[in-house]
Each structure stands twice: as C-alpha cells, then as structure tokens.
Amino acid sequence: MPEVPIRMPKMSMTMEEGEFGSWMIAVGDTITKGQPVAVVMTDKVEMEVESEVEGTVTRLTAQEGDTIAVGGELGYVDSAEDEGLGDLSDLLG
Amino acid sequence: MTTPATTQAVENPTDGPGGAADGGTDDSRELTYAESVRETLGDLMAADERVFLMGEDIGVYGGAFGVTTGLLERFGRERVRDTPISEIAIVGAGVGAALCGLRPIVELQFSDFVTCAMDQIVNQAAKIHFMLGGAAQVPLVIRAPAGSGTGAAAQHSQSLEAWFAHVPGIKVVMPATPADAMGLLRAAVADPNPVLVLEHKLLYKQKGVVSRGHHVPLGTAEVRRRGTDLTIVATSVMVGKAVAAAEELAAEGIDVTVVDPRTITPLDETTILTEVAATGKALLVQEAPRTAGFVAEIAARIAESDTFHTLKAPLVRLCGLDVPMAYAPELEKASVPQIPDIVGAARQLAKGD
Amino acid sequence: MRDLAKDPDLARQALETMWTARRFEEAVDQLFARGLMHGTMHLSIGQEASATGTCLALRPDDLITSTHRGHSHCVAKGADLTRMMAELLAKDSGYCRGRGGSMHIADVATGNLGANGIVGGGIPIAVGAALAQKITGSGKVVVSFFGDGAANEGAFHEAANLAAVWELPVVFVCENNHYGMSMAADEAFAIENISARAGAYGFPGVTVDGNDLQAVYEMVSSAAERARAGRGPTLVENVTYRWKGHSKSDKNLYRTREEIAAWQERDPITRFEDAVRKAGSLTDPDITAARKAATDAVREAIRTANAAAPAPATREVLLDAVYATEPTGVPA
What does the alpha-carbon distance between residue C253 and residue C26 come to, in Å, rounded to a whole number? Predict the structure, then answer.
C-alpha cells in the first residue's frame, strides 16, 4: 500500500509557510479522511491540519517549532486503498 | 449658441467606418441635441431589431429631459421599456441582455445615479470580457444626463467621467454638439464594449447642424477652431464656452485653438498633443471638480510626452471648484468655469503674466 | 416528471455528475493546500444535489448564472473539466485563459454565463438574459443561482421585482447553506424561509430539501415549465450545507465540528445512492463504476491541465484583453 505524505496545507491566500506545533496522533494509529492530525501555527493563529487520506500512520517527521513551507511533508500514512483521488503527486509531473 | 455648429459645418464632420453606410444625404438641418439623440435612437431601432431601450420614465413620459418622446408610440412597449426605479436591475438587465446578443441602450435618469448601479457597471459590464478571457462581450450603452446649471443641486448635477475613465473595460464619451451626440451614439451602439454616454443637460436644447446617419468614430477628437497663441482642451458644455471665449479673445488679437476630445476613453492623445505642441500653451477646461478630474490625465499625458519640450508656460487647468454643487443660481455659476473665467485664464496664459 | 432513482440512465448520469463535482472540489482542496493554486477557492462540497438536480431539470440550451461557489454548477451544466482545472491552475488553456480564476469561470457554449465574484452580482444579469429570451422568443429559461447571503443584497430585490413585473422566464435558485460567510442565516433574516420573499414580489416561492436530488429536480422542473410557458419567475430555495469553510481562509470559528459532522452524515450523494439501490435501477458495481468514472475523469483533467502552458504574461497580452474588437453589427 502506498505511503502518502501529510503536507503543510496552505490555509490562507498569502500563507507561504507554517510553524509546526504538535501531533494529535501517533505512529501506528488508524486515521480517517478529514480527521484532525496536527496543530500548526500560521499568521499567529493556530490551525488544525486534517488528513486527506484514510490509513495507518507510519512516520511523523515534523517536530515542534519546525518551519515548513506550504506543501512540505510533515509525516506519512500508509493509505488504505479507497475510491478517492489519491495523493495526486503522480499527476503533477 | 451657433458658433460651434458653424465651426462644425466648416470643419466637415469626421466620416469614419460606417460613414459610407449612413444616410449620406447632404441635408443641412438644424436639430437640437435632444432631437438628434431621439432621431438616432429611432434610426438605430428601425435598422436593427436587437436594439431596445430601458430606463425610468422613458416611455409615456418621454424621458426626464424629453429625449425619448415619441419612441414608445413608434416602437411599442417591448422595445421602449419603462422600468421601476431600480438602477441595479436596469443596468444589470442590460448586461445580461447584451451578453445574450441584444443591443440594449439603457438610460440612467441622472448620471449621478451611476452610484446606485456601480457594481453592474464597474465590476460586471466593464470586466466580463476580460475576466472571461474574451469568450463573451457586453455591448451595452448607458446614456445619462450630466452636469450642472439647472438648479438640481448636489445629487443631480455631477460630472463623473473621471470615475469611469479610471476603469479599464468601459468607454466614455461626452458629445458637445448635436452632430456629435448623433455620431457618438451611433458609434457607441456599434461598439462591442460597454459605453457610457454623458449628455450635458444644458446642451439638450442647443441647436446644431446635423446630417442624418452621421457617425463619429470613438477615440477621435475634433479641433473646433484653430489658432496660434494657445490651445484650449475642453470637454462637454465647456467646448461651447471655450469657443465663445475664443471669439472674444480674437477681437483682442489673441488667436486660440479649441480641441474637443469628444471621447474621454479611449482618448485621442495624438490630436491633443499635436495641437498643444503647435502653440506651446495649454489651458485645460472641465466642469467637474479640479482634484483628480479628467483633465489632470490630459495634463499628465502632455507633461510626460515630447510635447513637454514645446511648452512655453506651465499647463493651466480651469475646473469646477472642489465643492458639491450648490442650489442657488449664483452659487451654482460660481462653482464652475464660465466664459469670463475662460477668457481671463486664456488671456493670462497668452500674455505670459 | 421522471423518478431519477428509478431510471437507470438518469440515475447513472446523476451519480456521475454529483461524484464529478465532489471529486473536482476535493482535488481543488488538495491542490490548493499544496500551494499549487493561487488566490482562494470557495468549495461546494456537500451541495452537489442542489447543482445537479437543478441542471438535470434544464434543457441543454437553457442558461445559468452562477456564484463565487460555482464549480459544481459548472460541472452540472456540462463544462469541460480540463478547461476548468486549467483555469484554476492559471493556464492559457483555461476557460478564461488564466484571466478570471475560480470566481469567473463561464462556459458560454454550454449556457453558463459565468460565476461571479460579487455576491448577488449575477442575479440582475440572469434577469437580463431572461429578458433577451423573452424578446427573441427563444423558449429558453435562465436559472439564477445565488446563496442565502445574496438574498439580502439590493441586487436580488431589484432583479426579483423586475422579473416579476415583466414576467420573465427565470428561475431563482437560492442555495441556502445556512451561512453567508460567517453570519448564520437566522441572524441575517427575520423570516424563516427565504422563499417567502418571492410572495413579496408577486411570484411563487418554495423551500426544498436541497440535499434531496429528486425534490430539487422536481421543483426546478415545474419552475422551468412555468417560465417556459410565459408565466414568469419562481424562487426555489434549496436548503443545504457546505462542508468546507466559506473560502480557504476560513477558520470555521462560527460553527461547530459537531454541526459539520451531523450534516456530513446526511451526504446528498450517498443518500441518492441509497435511493438508487432501493429502487434497484443500478447494482452496487454500477454505483462503484459511476464513482470511479468521476474520479478518473477528474484525475485525467488534473494531469492534462497541469501539463499545459501557463498564461503568457506580457503587457501586450494584457492590454489587448481589455476591449472586444469585433463590431456588433448594428448598422452605424
């Protein structure tokens, strides 16, 4: 099953990077699509990051205080095969 | 005031594309500005069933200034549509109908009421062609009586051309004579873009020589009178005042050029720069308040071009005061340039005091 | 009036349309989150039945005007997904050549006169389009989509009144998703149902469960028939809910997770799938196939659109884009 990254989302028109706060999940957890998985700080506001896929958490690489660009990888999920769009990376060559 | 009309006849009205298609008869009739607009609206509706009118009180009432009198009887309620008092809907419906291939000519009862319809004019009509990547167009004409001198006071007397000159996507014309009212309206309806036609209220009763079917291309200025000592650029009702001032000054041996841009956007910069360079002195006259008014744009274009080097004196602007239009007749007159003001400013500029 | 769930072809078409709208919005959500899309996006996830039921009730040459939350209207009206995606990705091959973006997508060829960045801005335009249909006797109907927020704009009131007095062939479809941007509808209105406003202008208004595809389809069909018969406008209020925030900057401070979750339980698409299963018109594999077709179509659109050239950014291109140049053909 493909490992899919959890990415720093763009959460406003002008956001270019965010500061990682904390994880709400642990390695090995099963998560669902839309489930909040982390808290990040942007424009002085805390925002929750939601998972875009369903699956099992494999690695959590971002740590508190890390500054990560929009689109950057925070952690990884072994995504369950579903009928959704998938990660889209393969389309963005 | 017959001088502009006489000059018009002498200079030969510009014949642009479509000029060959017009009536072309050499009938030198005299019509008022209002009659010229009325005749043209009628001719356009008779020639093309896509043309129709919408506005408040344009039907039975004949329009607040009598411009559309008789058109309802001639064309019926489907094509001369009285509307409720709903400027947003009037202009917006015009946008929608134009998008679908009709050729609406809508009337705002006073140009001051553009404020009620600003979104539809500025955010919709002016931008749809661009925003849609060229996939659609809005051939909408908006006519509106503008300007002061009738005691209508602050909310019914404005000259707001500068607002729309500043909006890419809409064109603005200010015909100063009956012939130009005819010709520019014709060009406006043929143009695939939204066009705002500002008709000065004081001009409606002015008579002038016209020929049926006359067409004036947008973006062409008219030199009303050519002189050697200074160049006046004037818009709308100020054109006639400038020409009258020029006649007075001629008696003093001061010879004045008067240029009428006719179209505000797109501006015929070439004619203006050429005529200013020919005399080296420019007096820019508008009724609208001075600050950020349209002649400031003309001044900037002169100053930033090679014409700058031909200037023998600083540019002079003669404009309305930066005040809302008062009610009392003397206050109203004192708020905008009058012929003696133009004469005085021109004399000063010519003599280099 | 056809029962969409019972008709295999219509059921399949409806499912594919709704899933395509859903997947398209999910894709936009993801691509935006990755920083690949500029500006902001107003997603219609959760509102698919309103868009689809309405457009299924129309003929192919009927017209619509849309809103800033217009992707699903566009999809339901038959737009080309690749051109839509290309527009959002700022490509020259996008519907607006990269000049309009999400809020200004139009597909004049399929009768979509355009999304609109001004709340309520499209309503008078729809009325004008309806006026044109009446004047020319085309027999076409215009749907004006707008939200609960727009029903408080002056433009709505003026346009509704004008449509009523001139008996224009327009159907006003109000997608009441309970929030303007952050203001709850019950704080913005002193009335219970927005449909009541139609009566104030002299035409029928009806409130419908906007997440019930069949109900939307039936109501808009009757309204379209009324309009086509020359009997004037109707207001159809589709009560629905948007799962995502107003825009991509929305922190959802004005509503609770519980409220969002409760509405997500009542997903209009899965609700229709249940109706289809119950009617027996399509099998489970058929339903899965419809979902997959939609997903594949959106993925393909992303692939193609992403590979296309960006909009050329020269001064000349920009200046040439402002004014139309072909004369209107009115004898001058």
Answer: 22
